[in-house]
Amino acid sequence: MTNSAPQQALTLKQSGIRWLWLAIVVFIIDNGTKLLVMDSMGYGWPNRIEITPFFNLLYVHNTGAAFSFLSSAGGWQRWLFAAIAFGVCGLLTMWMRRTPVTNKMANIAYALIIGGALGNLFDRLYHGFVVDFLDFYYGSYHWPAFNIADSAICLGAVLLILDGFKADKTVKDH
Length: 174
Hints:
It is a multi-pass membrane protein. Helices cover 53% and strands 13% of the residues. It is of the alpha+beta class. It has one domain.
């Protein structure tokens, strides 16, 4: 039988909400790099900057989601992805509020995802597309171009998975 007693609410000082500063940093870095790319690079493949034999800077627009999912859907996807981003940010902020500040991995993961989602949301609402500029490739195969926000979201997801394994191990040890 489980204990059904209500869990005492954390104060703001005790909760992970204090980690939202990291989401703000991710948002600022993401938007700063996108602004730099838009102001200093020409659009598209002919204007790419070859950095290494496996990496280019390449200014492109993405009207879809990850891997250009639904990019040719006609415009409605902009609002769908914006609504999803708002929902995810709200949900993760609520989870941060309920997570102890000492659970660094989960709170960092939430903050990275929130910051990345807000960075791409800003692009989507302001420009109507997301600016992507990181192009990794091997031979003639190019991974879909992405940005700092996408990287933060992926890193946050990996940290959440790792935190889940850590939490599972802690439960088994007790």
